[in-house]
Write a structure and sequence with these properties.
With about 200 residues, this protein is mainly alpha-helical. Helix content is about 70%, strand content about 0%. The chain has nine helices and no strands. It holds the Pfam family TetR_N.
């Protein structure tokens, strides 16, 4: 009989990372209640005692995945802020880069995104915080003369989160469009609108 446990030569961080990766996939596919620790450890070729070395419970590993998603998303959002003295002609490209980075993160981490942005109890709060961070960025950029002074940045931020949420499901998860192309389409819509200029 093969004894299950930590693979020979594998360090604890590798085992922990593997458990997080597999747990994310299980939670994303089956949901929280249908996911079992026994399935996670079986897929990782580890023992249940090994699982409990790193995580107190199924809830603990789920919460860590949500925390990881939140951290990565807000880090990308903060990095996307336009700084003072930025060349006005380069603004569309810079905004596109920031939005594409978020979509790329979602595309490369679909299970984590499904958990943090859609399945977790914290998902709605994460979206509210995302809208607040985007609003803060936009107001900062507005005060620096990048955007029209009368623009309602709360409405724009909330709209952008709605756009991101829907297009993540229909375009990113379905792999219908590359993150950079999708970001460019959104930026073009928001900055130039739909009307033909005469």
């Amino acid at each position: 009989m093969i004894k299950r446990g930590r693979k020979k030569g594998a360090n604890g961080e590798q085992s922990r990372a593997l458990l997080l990766f597999i747990a994310a996939d299980e939670f994303a596919r089956k949901g929280y209640f249908e996911t079992k620790v026994s399935t996670i450890v079986h897929r990782a070729n580890l023992s249940q005692p090994t699982f409990y070395l790193y995580f107190e419970s199924k809830e603990a590993i789920f919460k860590e995945l949500v925390k990881k998603f939140r951290y990565e998303l807000f880090n990308l959002t903060i990095q996307s802020r336009l700084e003072t003295g930025f060349d006005l002609n380069a603004i569309p490209h810079k905004i596109t880069q920031g939005l594409a980075a978020i979509f790329r993160f979602f595309a490369e981490n679909q299970s984590l995104t499904r958990i943090g942005f859609f399945l977790s109890q914290e998902a709605e709060e994460i979206k509210k915080q995302l809208a607040a961070q985007i609003k803060e960025n936009l107001i900062y950029e507005q005060q620096n003369g990048h955007f029209h002074p009368d623009a309602n940045m709360l409405i724009i931020a909330e709209s952008l989160v709605g756009i991101i949420e829907r297009l993540t499901i229909t375009q990113i998860f379905e792999e219908n469009i590359q993150p950079e192309i999708l970001a460019n389409e959104i930026v073009h819509l928001l900055l130039d609108g739909l009307l033909v200029k005469t």
